[in-house]
Write a structure and sequence with these properties.
Elements (H helix, E strand, L loop, with lengths): L7 E8 L1 H5 L3 H10 L3 E8 L3 H7 L9 H8 L4 E9 L1 H9 L4 H7 L4 H5 L8 E3 L3 H11 L9
This protein binds ribavirin triphosphate and magnesium ion.
């Protein structure tokens, strides 16, 4: 059967420290499964300053970077590898815009609208491209999980 040309993809999802602390994990996982994603891998980890800085290295020159690292090291996070057709864009759509205040206004059904607080504490992460997804999955998981080109 045709799948509309969409590719099976894997993406990295993360429930950030505020999401775990706020007990949103089960609701977020419910939304993930309801939206047709398979959770292939799941692990709770605590990022130290070095690992959080490397994960968000693309933002290292931004003014918000020190606060971002503090935020991401403020408690454990839950990292997941999600799989479905078009997983990368679909997970970004499900989490909503970066700023949770905007998410509440314009994407009320998004995960950031449900559990985010502001433009920093936005409770979840999603890979923003195929390259990011591959980099971020191999950042946390074994090579064999990384999708083949
Ligand atoms: P993420 O990488 O976590 O999925 O978020 P994103 O793509 O929607 O946004 P990005 O531009 O990559 O920013 C990464 C994270 O940095 C924090 N941030 N704080 N205070 C601020 O103005 C600000 N801007 C960004 C957020 O936690 C954002 O998710
Ligand atoms: Mg990003």
């Amino acid at each position: 059967a045709s799948n509309g040309g969409m590719k099976m993809e894997k993406t990295l999802a993360m429930i950030k420290p505020d999401g775990l602390r706020g007990n949103y994990t089960e609701r977020i996982k419910g939304a993930i499964v309801e939206s047709g994603f398979r959770i292939l891998e799941e692990r709770i980890v605590e990022l130290d300053e070095d690992r959080a800085s490397r994960f968000y290295a693309e933002h290292s020159s931004r003014s918000f970077f020190p606060n971002l690292v503090k935020y991401m090291t403020s408690g454990p996070v839950c990292i997941m590898v999600l799989e479905k057709q078009n997983a990368i864009a679909d997970w970004r759509a499900l989490i909503g815009p970066t700023d949770s205040v905007k998410a509440k206004a314009t994407h009320p059904n998004s995960i950031r609208a449900m559990c985010g607080l502001d433009s920093e504490k936005n409770c979840v992460h999603g890979s923003d491209s195929l390259l990011s997804a591959q980099r971020e999955i191999s950042f946390f998981f074994e090579e064999e999980t990384v999708q083949q080109l």
